[in-house]
Amino acid sequence: MRSAMNLRITLLFFFLGMMVLSGCRSQRDTVRTGTVFERGEASWYGPGFHGQATANGERYDQEALTAAHRTLPFDTVVGVRNLHNGKKVVVRINDRGPYANNRIIDLSRAAAREIDMIQSGIAPVELTILRSPVPVQRAAIARELFTVQVASFNTRQEATAHARSIRGARVAEGRVQGQTVYRVYVGEFRNQRDAERQRRRLSRQGINGFVKQVQN
User: Fold this and answer.
1) 8 Å CB contact between 97 and 68
2) Higher pLDDT, 120 or 143
3) What does the alpha-carbon distance between residue 92 and residue 110 come to, in Å, rounded to a whole number?
């Protein structure tokens, strides 16, 4: 009897210990607000993209303090510090990119002007998360996920009907300029190259689409 009781107590403490360790690990994996989490090269984009749709459905405004990042959740507020001159700017993530030359963030023209990198075009920076709609995990920052978007509808019923006609398709709800839309996606890929292969396969079947990075 006492042996069984001791076993239960031992198991209880074991599981409690595992829960504590799991909580500590989760906290370590979460990027703390106000700490530098990434260093690398920044670029900026302007007139050629002004007015075009961003990845979260907004219209790109080159005079707004916004930026593109490959993996941070949309609406994350990030502090950007130019390591060449120490100048800082605060931006909101509303787009995806950049995908060239290992750059880590693409700033709006206004944001680039704030840290004096218009002329140089690129600058070494460090990034700090100031506010995020969800906790940001370190693993998620490093992970990219791509898909192929083949359609977008105003009603879930239309989107579901279309998705049923394409093998492996799924429906995801989104927002564009305050309106709910229902997008049809095919596949999930760890790199852009594999997603592009899927897009070409679909094209040969008469299904047009484009590669899109999925929000983490």
Assistant:
1) yes
2) 120
3) 12
CA angle 73-79-81, nearest 5°? 135
Tell me, what amino acid is at 173?
Answer: E
Average pLDDT over residues 69-98: 94
**What's 36-137's CATH class?**
mainly beta
Q: What are phi and psi of 2, to 5 degrees?
A: -65, -35
Task: Please give the pLDDT value at position 27.
Answer: 46
Max Cα distance, the chain (Å): 79
Q: In this structure, are residues 79 and 128 in contact, taking their beta carbons and an 8 Å threshold?
A: yes
Give the count of beta carbons closer than 10 Å to the beta carbon of residue 182. 20
Cβ proximity of 183 and 174 under 8 Å:
yes
pLDDT at residue 162, rounded to an integer: 94
- Mean predicted confidence (pLDDT) in 108-121: 96
144-213 to CATH, choices 3.20.20.70, 3.40.50.970, 3.90.226.10, 3.30.70.1070: 3.30.70.1070
Q: Rg (Cα) of the chain, in Å, rounded?
A: 22
Only one residue has tokens 């990034």, namely 127
